[in-house]
Amino acid sequence: MSSRTVIRGGLVITASDEIHADVLIEDGRIAALAASASPAADAFTADRTIDATGKYVIPGGVDAHTHMELPFGGTFASDTFETGTRAAAWGGTTTVVDFAVQSVGRSLRQGLDDWHAKAEGTCAIDYGFHMIVSDVNAETLKEMDLLVEEGVTSFKQFMAYPGVFYSDDGQILRAMQRSAENGGLIMMHAENGIAIDVLVEQALARGETDPRYHGEVRKALLEAEATHRAIRLAQVAGAPLYVVHVSATEAVAELARARDEGLNVFGETCPQYLFLSTDNLAEPGFEGAKYVCSTPLRPKEHQAALWRGLRTNDLQVVSTDHCPFCFTGQKELGRGDFSKIPNGLPGVENRMDLLHQAVLDGHISRRRWIEIACATPARMFGLYPKKGTIAPGADADVVVYDPGAEQVMSADTHHMNVDYSAYEGKRVTGRVETVLSRGVPVITDREYTGRAGHGVYTPRSTCQYLT
Predict the structure, then answer these.
(1) How much is the pLDDT for 171?
(2) d(Cα 6, Cα 23) in Å, to the nearest integer?
(3) pLDDT at position 177, please?
(4) Beta bridge mates, 396
(5) Backbone angles phi, psi at 342, to 5 degrees
(6) What would the pLDDT profile of 238-292 be if each residue is shown by its tens digit?
(7) Angle (CA) 329 72 279, round 5°
(8) DSSP 418
(9) Measured between alpha carbons, how far is 232 from 219 in angstroms, rounded to an integer?
(10) Closest to 397 measured CA to CA, from 417, 416, 370
(11) d(CA 197, CA 323)
(12) Alpha helices per DSSP H over 1-137
């Protein structure tokens, strides 16, 4: 049965345009756009009409960095694929790219199969996978080629977490050389984990055990050093590089320098680095544990460099690194030893609203909001124009957004499966009203109308930015 929906009267905002237009959706895809109240728009007929008068009509968000059900520090991220993707939909995100994990001693295939099993039949929205490469060897390198062919086109490596995910420079170089050949994109957690472990040991020996010391030992200079090293290794390999969760002024400078040299180097930051700071890590008692993530929160003065990087395109993407752990029973594992606090923050539901607030605060334009949250992540990870825009032929992942609605962020009202909000009490203007995923209403007038299993696995092509 063919189904048709028309969204009337809204301001359609994409990365390139703003136009008052009606949007016709047919069988899960965008069929046509026409200027509102024009003869062409008046000719649109549909089974369902959505009135978007006074609202924005924007592409569904693409969050290219989430960790549902991730095992970490003796526990698991508290959001399942079911709860996490439902919360994403509430926040106007219609596609997530999560990280499948290769454990040391196992194959990439085993790790990918494990993540398919977790996600299949449970997601409210569409999803794809990156592959965390923890064990580089001859077989791993061959598997990278196979994964690229089947739509897993990006591979994450860690310069941090020795003994867990860590890769040394030789392993990183080998993986980069392989990605240079097969078209894959290496994503890098750039922190000098070997040096950080020394500083952690020394801090604990001094009795510095509170959450705030997590930020003090993971120094901005060690993020910048690792970022520089990753860039030069990628240059030697002739490979593109995407640096995840950039948090520090000095790391942005390394990316800007590399891009000025014409290198295929890209950077991502996250809302927590744009809106939170070491002030949160230093909250009294053990409250600071809520804000422990890696890379860590930085002093507030770093925020200006991140916003500037987003405006100058030295940073291209805002993802969440959504990796929630409950305060009670999970973050508390680190009482008396900050190094045992599970690293991660909840945020998949908050990203689109926080970035809209950034528009109102004058940090970015409306179109840049859509660019860094929808279009660029889709292009970066081979999903565009299927995802990330509103154009004929694209999947009908569409959000009707009320730019004037006010809300207060709170754990009492969010839908993530975690017992606190990183933005508790923060007032923002702008709120999701209705969300369509491939033309199907997932959120309808602030009511959840989706279902587990609607979301489908989405293979990806290679990065669309490579020169």
Answers:
(1) 98
(2) 6
(3) 98
(4) none
(5) -55, 130
(6) 999 999 999 999 999 999 999 999 999 999 999 999 999 999 999 999 999 999 9
(7) 65
(8) S
(9) 20
(10) 370
(11) 22
(12) 39-42, 81-90, 108-119
Number of CB atoms found within 10 A of residue 184's CB? 25
Structure tokens at 155: 């591979």
Q: How far is CA 19 from CA 23, 58, 334, in A?
A: 11, 11, 51
Query: Quick check: 25 and 390 in contact, CB under 8 A?
Result: no
| 178 vs 157: CA distance, rounded Å | 13
Task: Find where tokens 């009337």 sit.
Answer: 8
First to last CA, the chain: 43
Question: Number of C-alpha atoms within 13 angstroms, CB side, residue 290?
Answer: 24
> How many CB atoms are located within 10 Å of the residue 75 CB?
15
**DSSP 8-state secondary structure symbol assigned to residue 78:** S
**Residue 1's pLDDT is what?**
64
Alpha helices in 162-211 (DSSP H): 169-182, 193-205
Q: Which of 131, 183, 182 is nearest to 152 (CA)?
A: 131
Helix axes 303-312, 249-260, angle to 10 degrees: 20
Sign of CA dihedral 409, 410, 416, 422: positive
pLDDT at 363: 98
Task: Choose among 347, 334, 379: nearest CA to 273.
Answer: 347
The list of the chain residues with pLDDT below 50 reads: none
Residues 6+ apart with CB under 8 A from 85: 68, 96, 122, 123, 124, 125, 127, 455
Q: Which helix (H) or strand (E) holds 313?
A: none
Rounded distance between C-alpha atoms, residue 363 and residue 226, angstroms: 28
131, 186, 196 from 264: Cα distances, Å: 20, 11, 28
pLDDT in tens, 59-90: 999 999 999 999 988 899 999 999 999 999 99
Angstrom CA distances, 361 to 301, 357, 358, 429, stand at: 17, 6, 5, 10
